Task: inverse folding
C-alpha cells in the first residue's frame, strides 16, 4: 500500500481486529474501526470509530455507509466473526443460521456496500479459517462454523473474480490458532503475532494471486 491509506476493519474493538488496527495505525494509516460496541483500546488507536453497527442487518450496513461518506478505502478487512459448537445428534440450527449471518453473509454485505468507495489498487481481506477447508477437515464437528467459513471462502473467491477487472484484489486469510476470547484464550499464537502475519499476507496480495486462501504464516491452504 502507499504511504497513507484508509483501512476499514470490522470487529475492531478487541482480539485480532484490535491488533490489526494497532498495526496499521502504527504504520501511519488512517484506521476506521467498525464494531457494535467500542473499547478504550480501539478509541486510542483508530482515527475514527463507527460503533453501534450490526453488520448482519440492512440498518447496520446503512449506518456503516453513512459513516464512510467521502472516504477512499484502500483496504477493507472483514474480521467480525462468531464461533459456536454443534454436535451431531443435538444440532442447534439457530446457532448455525447465526454463524452463517455473521461469518458469511455479513462480509458479503459489507463488501458490496463499500466497493463503490474503493478504487483500482484497493484490497479486501476476508478473515476466514482453515476450518472452512473441506479438504483439511479431519476432525468433524463445528458444523455452523465450518459451513459459514466455507461459504465465506466461496463468496471471497467469486468477489475476487468479479473485482479483478476493477483492479481490486481479494484474499481469504486464516489468522492461525490465536489466543483470543473466541477460543477461551487457548490458542498457539498471540493476536500480535497473528496481526503481523496477516498484514504480511495482505501486503503480498495482488491481482496475480487474488482469490487465494492463505494461512497467516504464508502457507497456501486447500479448499
Result:
Amino acid at each position: 500500500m502507499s504511504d497513507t491509506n484508509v483501512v476499514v476493519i470490522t470487529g475492531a474493538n478487541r482480539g485480532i481486529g484490535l491488533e490489526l488496527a494497532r498495526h496499521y495505525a502504527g504504520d501511519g494509516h488512517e484506521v476506521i474501526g467498525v464494531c457494535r460496541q467500542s473499547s478504550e483500546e480501539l478509541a486510542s488507536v483508530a482515527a475514527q470509530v463507527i460503533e453501534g453497527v450490526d453488520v448482519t442487518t440492512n440498518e447496520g450496513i446503512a449506518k456503516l455507509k453513512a459513516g464512510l461518506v467521502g472516504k477512499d478505502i484502500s483496504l477493507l478487512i472483514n474480521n467480525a466473526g462468531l464461533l459456536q459448537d454443534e454436535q451431531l445428534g443435538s444440532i442447534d440450527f439457530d446457532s448455525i443460521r447465526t454463524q452463517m449471518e455473521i461469518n458469511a453473509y455479513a462480509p458479503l454485505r459489507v463488501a458490496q456496500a463499500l466497493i463503490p468507495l474503493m478504487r483500482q489498487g484497493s484490497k479486501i481481506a476476508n478473515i476466514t479459517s482453515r476450518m472452512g477447508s473441506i479438504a483439511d477437515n479431519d476432525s468433524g464437528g463445528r458444523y455452523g462454523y465450518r459451513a459459514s467459513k466455507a461459504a465465506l471462502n466461496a463468496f471471497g473467491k467469486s468477489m475476487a473474480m468479479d473485482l479483478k477487472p476493477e483492479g481490486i484484489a481479494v484474499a481469504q486469510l486464516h489468522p492461525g490458532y490465536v489466543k483470543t476470547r473466541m477460543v477461551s484464550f487457548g490458542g498457539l499464537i498471540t493476536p500480535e503475532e497473528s496481526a503481523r502475519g496477516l498484514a504480511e499476507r495482505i501486503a503480498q496480495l495482488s491481482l496475480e494471486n487474488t482469490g487465494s486462501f492463505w494461512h497467516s504464516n504464508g502457507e497456501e491452504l486447500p479448499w
Observations:
- Strands lie at 6-10, 30-34, 48-50, 73-78, 118-127, 169-174, 213-215.
- The chain has a mean pLDDT of 94.
- The radius of gyration is 16 Å.
